[in-house]
Write a structure and sequence with these properties.
Structural class: alpha+beta
Number of strands: 3
Shape: elongated
Number of domains: 1
Number of helices: 1
Helix content: 25-40%
Largest sheet: 3 strands, antiparallel
C-alpha cells in the first residue's frame, strides 16, 4: 500500500493546548497538552475515518 502525505495544521489555544487538524478531511480535529500527544491523538481520529 502506498502512503500518502497530507498537510496538517497545528495551533495553540489560549489554554496552551495544541489543536491539530487535517484540512482535507472535514471534521478531522484533535488536541493534546503537547504537540506529540496532539499528533498521536489525530492518528487515532484518522484511523476511524472510513
Amino acid at each position: 500500500m502506498e502512503k500518502v502525505r497530507l498537510p496538517i495544521i497545528i495551533e495553540q489555544d489560549e489554554d496552551k493546548y495544541y489543536i491539530v487538524s487535517r484540512p482535507l478531511f472535514k471534521g478531522c480535529h484533535s488536541y493534546g497538552e503537547t504537540i506529540d500527544k496532539a499528533l498521536e491523538n489525530i492518528k487515532e481520529v484518522i484511523d476511524i475515518i472510513p
